[in-house]
Fold each of these.
Amino acid sequence: MKESLREIYTGLSSLITGLGITLRQFFKPVVTVQYPHESLKMPARFRGHIELVRDPATGKPLCYACKLCEKACPTDCITVEGLKRDGEKRKSVSEYHLDFTRCSLCGSCVEACKSGAIRFSKEYNLAGTSKEEFILDLFRRLEREGK
Amino acid sequence: MSALAAIQIGEPLRLVLFLLGIMAFVGFNAAYLVWAERKGAGRFQRRVGPSEVGYAGLLQPIADAVKLLTKQVLVPPGADATLFRAAPILVIAPALISLAVIPFGPALAARDLNVGLIMIFAFGSVNVMALMLGGWSSRNKYAIISAARVVSQNVAYEIPMLLVVVTMLLVTGTMSLTKIVEDQAGGFWHWNLFRLAANPLMPLTFLTFYICMLAETNRAPFDMAEAESELVAGAYTEYAGMGFGVFFMGEYANILLGCSLATVLFLGGWQCPFGLLPGVFWFLVKLYLLVFSVIWVRWTFPRTQFYGLLNLSWKILIPLSLGTLVLSAAMIKLLGR
Amino acid sequence: MSPSEVIAAPEGQRETFVLNLGPQHPATHGVLRLKLTMDGEFIVRAEPVCGYIHRMHEKMAENRSYAQFLPNTSRIDYLSAMTYTHAFVGAVERAAKLEVPPRAEFIRVITSELNRISSHLVWLGAYLLDLGGFTPLLYAFDDREKILDLLEGVTGARLTYCYYRFGGVCNDVDEAFTRGTKEFVAYMRPRLDMYRALVTDNIILRKRLVGIAPISAETCRKYGATGPVIRGSGVAYDVRRREPYSAYPLFDFEVPNFPEGDCMARYLVRMEEMAQSLRIIEQAVDRLPEGPVMATAVPRVLKLPAGDVAYAVEAARGRFMVHIVSDNKEIPYRVKLRTPSLSNLSLFEEASQGLVLPDAVALLGSLDLVIPDIDR
């Protein structure tokens, strides 16, 4: 008898403590960010899809199509082609396609590249209406950014 | 308010106006209590509730209603169509009828029956039957399990509720709700909650009534019938579109009814706490404070185990309410009312 | 009828029906199908059917080089991704005899323990959601955001980190991380007290968990259940103590275990593990040594010598072991992933006999299954 009375007492007090905790949380500010109206800044090492890097001196992409990234990728997402233009010592990239539908953002390509020609971008606002939109043409993207 | 009471309207017209008013009140509340619950849930969880549709999400219930209206009401093949369609109506109709005797203000009761209190409980039992019919006629195993649980839960919790009501009858001496409220005039120390001379355990009686009200309306922590994470949606699984909408409205109408009854029986109805300006405003304040506490309790506690729920009723609440009934009878015999 | 009477009644006397807790169900934490043969409210037989999310990780391992398999390891059990990568990386390092610098070992311990806390927070939220308490989920996810922000600052990813490399870690941690971790430890301890007051001491929760679905240590051993499941049955088995790896021998922590074996014991084990993880993190951050984070002589193209190697870690769910069979090529011959959730699930059939449906849901939640971990 005494046991059950004590249980009722501790039970009721645990319920009231719980109510007190939620009431205290009621008056605290919200912790969520209302996404389309506000957005967060991505940290420096954020992994968005990869992008080509320009040489600051010449303004041309650093990539010379050695295809190390293509070999390193676990899911064969990358297709690189290069052209050797007249007057240049080595090839330079002419096409760079990333199949983002299969990319797992592992970073093998970024680590495999010997010349620092690719890096992670900070893009996360990606939405499209068809799968083909996510076969990214990074070379054209770099050209568009340059303009 | 007294000015309104002075206007004389012919009897059938007055009753019709009041009933229309009650239906509008219930409809508006059913819609906007959903909004209040979602916003309240959001704030308890440190997030903003609905905020996109309209300013602060105030048009969200309208968007939900439009969505429910445009859905096809499917009757599952092999289900009993008449019972399937009748169940939602049977959930909301008794709540609407019972609200006809609640005194919202000094002259604002649709019908002042002298057996008002008993009438409410007579109609309240129909709620159980409606859920059982809804569950059984859906021809769905989850719904049947849920219907079985609802029946045993509601039957178990009606008993302490009725015992509490009998205790209050002894204490107040009348079954007419308007007279019960008029008896509690004066400051808040005249409210039935503090009437310790007639029943020293009155706060416990109020707590018992509150718990039984939560259990009767199948609200968390007693929502085994609708236990979302186990039974998908329990008795409501097969209902789509407005059938589900009416069930939902019925649930909120029952919460309103339960909280109104608690306000009238224990907290002085439309009486002001300081005896100054009685009126419907005080009734609404107390009603919505109780509704807030119902929302608060829902979002804080997990669901009780089914056997724990029945144990609570049969082993704790019924002895407690029987004890308070005997105690009140003894006190009233000794000290008078 | 009591549960034991239900089981004892002869077959012909029972009127049973089959309830399908299908692959799409809020309480099965993923795509697990449970075929429950029920007698009224009691479960007579529970048959789990898995395989709905079989993604052939072990087959993929046979077609990728060791470095190319690293992203897969994060995705086997995405909630404790760091620890799974640790096992694979540890196995390769053990076979290739690579020496990991101490700073990298400490960083691995810190990130693994942070991952363990975030996994247990998801477990806490989801378990309470199953039991009907919706609010602690949001509080747990708020705490988890802080961990994910810390790890995002270091690795760049929030859930499927591809952070460890053979011979170390790929990025060094900066001062913002160590400061943030210390702040997190100071923030989390009062939050654990809050969970105790709001959830653990709550009478309704205690009625749901105490004495429900007791599992004996023999049953755990029979099915090979590890992790909090066996620690909740009184056996103090933790891979970090039995088969010490990485920098764990340097830290002072306890292995919580409770003898009762019911759902509450498993619950308390996980809550206590979070507190112990905070202790480990605190010690590791205080004693973080300077130095490189990557071993010096790592071959560009890794070929393991022919033979077997195995490496086990204590993941959030139990003992995860990677067993690699190599035939001296760049691509392994076979990679076997021994996942804890499969063993933990296999005792569900025996433990759920005679339970009512809500108790079975409580049992399923207390086993902390992640279905992709079962199916790989």
Amino acid sequence: MSRSPVEIVDCQTRQTVAAWLHDELGALDLLDAEIVWMPERMKSVARMLRSGVVEEDLPQHSHWNWWNKAYELRMLATGGFGIHCDGQWQGLMMTTTVGHAARLPEQLDKPLVYVKYLESAPWNVRAFVQAPKYGAIGTRLLEAAVRLSVAEGFSGRVGLHALPNPATELFYQRRGLIGLGPDAHMEDLPYYEFSSAAANAFLNEGE
Amino acid sequence: MDEKRTMTLNLAAREMEVLEELAKKKELNKTAVLRQALRLYQMVDEKLSRGETLFFEDKITKKKAEVFVL
């Protein structure tokens, strides 16, 4: 597994914190994450339900289980990424380089990196906890997806389906992804895509 | 990233033409096209091995044609 240094943000002090971005996760890494994340998610869900939140309003990824996605890592097309800090996985992402093509008119049908799943650890997600521990996890993982796209010769093109909530969609919009509306072939989840130009601008912003 | 290994590939002229056409169309180099093809082949083979079926669907008529992969 290869790793490179990245910076994330301590949400309490607003100071940057050194972390590692791993870009070749294996099944055991996903299991290690899920062993810790699942009880945290469940505790948060129980707390929300007790406080009167109805099931339909729970975060859509409450039921995610990375261990169930581990078999996908056997595919050459699948990439597993994670950010490690404080001895724990702070965020995970799974990508694929086949099965999806660009939809923006200026890059229609060109290959891209498709982000299948991206999630921060439950203690970093405002929907689960009042005071998230670390921030910038999603941004660092999205940067990794763009870098993979560049390395594959896809010119930075990245596509993904966002979970349909305003905060998630705003996160992607602020980073320059273009929303192409709900996708009827994907349970009406909103589809977002980085143009090559926007992806490179996003990378330069972070450097 | 994985260590890269090199091989020599012998293609018929027509196969090379198709490879070059695909590389131009997809704006990829020829190595990238072949890597994509291998990834796709593995993914399809894996899904078929699990008992799934691969279809092409005509966007207008909705007619489906099953794809068989060796």
Amino acid sequence: MGLIRLPLAPVSFALFAAVMLLAVPLALAGQGYWLTVLTTAALLAFGSLGVWLTFSIGRINIAQGAFALIGGYVVAILGTRYHVSFWLALPLAVLVSMLVATLVGWPILRLRGVYFAMITLSLTEVASLAFLNGGGFTAGASGITSIPRPALLSSSLAIYIASALLLLAGIVIAWRFAVSPAGAVFRSLRQGEELAASLGIDIARYRLLAFVASSGMGGAAGAMFAAFQQNIFPTSYTVNDSVNFMLYCFLGGLQSVAGPVVGAFLLVIAFQLLSAIQKYQALLYGIFMIAAMLFLPNGLMSLPRVLAARRRRDE
Amino acid sequence: MSLLAIEGVTRRFGGLIAVNNVSFSVEAGEILSVIGPNGAGKSTLFKLIAGFVKPTAGHILLDGKRIDGLRPHAIAARGLVRTFQETTVFREMTALENVTVAHHLRRRASIAAELLATPSVRAEQKEFLSDSREILARLGLAGLENELARNLPHGHLRALGIAMALAVRPRVILLDEPFTGMNSEETERAVEIVRTIRAGGVTVVLVEHDMGAVMRISDRIVVLNFGTLIASGTPAAIQQDETVIDAYLGRADEIAAL
């Protein structure tokens, strides 16, 4: 169980891809509301995959909201002021997020455990304040609205498909990475940085690699959100959102690539179905989190294993 | 020229001098042991050589080139690898994965190629896997390849730690207390392993409390006391050395072992 249960079996992936790309569009083509919900879930899942990546090196990353903000603002500013096409702005948003992550990550990745978690949490707050006080450049509290719709993505269905494709690509890359030698190096960092260093692994470089890749994914998710919501504000992503990215990983499980995806879809969809109790969202998230840690410390994805173990014990 | 040279190395921690102006050298192909009472600075000396702690003064040279100031991974890349006391391994990986990760420095493919699992990458990984199995077998861990490290008994964990260090293909290996906590039979096997390592062309420096094993295995011994080098020489010479006997006074059991 300790070793990452890597291959999100190709079969379940194919099934998930079929549902995302065929079943959902066919069933929900006319229903903008549910398409938007699933678009949201897909993009949040994509951002969580990045957070999952930083978990794999043993760092609790609560900065993903900051990078979603950065990605969103890059698309917003380029699109409204300079009329840059979204398809050019998107990779630029990822690039800027990665650049910021490099500058910020280098010093803070020396920290571990709760210290790293706390400083990433404050990063989210800092990013929000920076955009709030950015003067004319970021338009302050009024945010940037009327961001032009990306070419080719004029309908909610098109935006949904683009988000689903992004998520599927993210899953494939994360999974390939997890089974690759570099993924093994990531996991070794989580289990002993000094030992890894003694074996010739440049731990600072690999830590940075994980954080930069994660932040690039956060930036991409933010850029997509900004394009489909057509606006962005300093409060579009708060500490709460950063915590949620992490929560999706915890709930789904850190052991497999599927964990953050399952966590994000489950929570996002559940709260749409239970829209009446949305004001209790934070409370319920908290209860979920505590329950998951008590009864399923390895996340929902470990449920089959836990049940199997229980059955064996009972027999 | 010596393979490894420690030249006037000092390390202070605040007001405490953990290692005080220590100089000695290690010749290629020998087994050199560092001994001394508890708190003599042996562990700090190891950390200094492997780059985990920087010297306050002095130089450390590998092949005549300075390595003090380099980070641990860079020192490993130059062919000097340390093992850890006790049981430091990647506990949530299998024995085979532990040793395979230790092949890191031999990875030639880019991360992108690894993601795509190109034929050359697959060939490389296959080679690492078979080399890892071979190293595990050499250290008596055959059959335990797929066991999670945290399920291995202590003696095997130490062997696994050495297996990982060997996978780096070092020229110098620093072994931190390789015999501590072992019964005589296990010690015998560990001594044999150290001899095999040396026979494979790897220079061995070890820190150890088990005097019996040290006396049998070492070509030369360096003795530290309160951070200062008080004697060095062959095991026979060290056993006769007055300063060494003084340093160990009151430790009747260890004198008896000498």
